[in-house]
Amino acid sequence: MPAPTLTTARLMLRQLREDDAAALFPVLSDPEVMVWWSSGPHRSLQETADYLVFNAAEGQGHICWAITAGDDVALGWVILIDRKPDVKEVGYILHRGQWGKGIAREAVARVVDYGFGELKLRRIFADTDPENPGSIGLLERLGFQREGRLRGEWETHIGVRDSLIFGLLRDEWRERAGSENTETT
User: Fold this and answer.
1) CA distance 99 to 109
2) What is the pTM of this model?
3) φ, ψ for residue 33 (rounded to 5)?
4) Is residue 1 in some structural domain?
5) What is the DSSP letter of 20?
6) Rounded distance, CA 181 to CA 86, Å?
7) So where does this one cross the membrane (predicted)?
8) 77: closest CA among 99, 101, 55?
């Protein structure tokens, strides 16, 4: 199924498309952005275009949204990957020039809200490298709890890496959303 368009105060999340390659090549070719990714920095626009074929495709067991700031230019993406009934894994990547602005948090929070609300998921989880403080901080700020460490889980361009697993349950998300609404009223 195509990703439904989701909006936030600052962002529009829309279906990732193959023609996003030119906008995303600077992201996927940046060594600092890609250090914790499962593959190394892209060396050509064609490599990015080939990479997006799968991520942008429908019916592959995932939903992938391009993160845009309303001008339709992809700054990164958020993906929900099927893992088992009512459980999905969330993943995300964002242009380094957009780090520290709350964009990833806003985009991932909107996708998590969609997952628990519209898709009726019971659990969403993420895995991240133990040395990736930005991703760990993002997940913790959203209420994900560290559930475990998988030793030697990934073989990547920087070697064999452990993975930290963070999980969030629907009731935890709802409780958190309720308490945030209570605090602001």
Assistant:
1) 16
2) 0.93
3) -70, -40
4) no
5) G
6) 26
7) none
8) 55
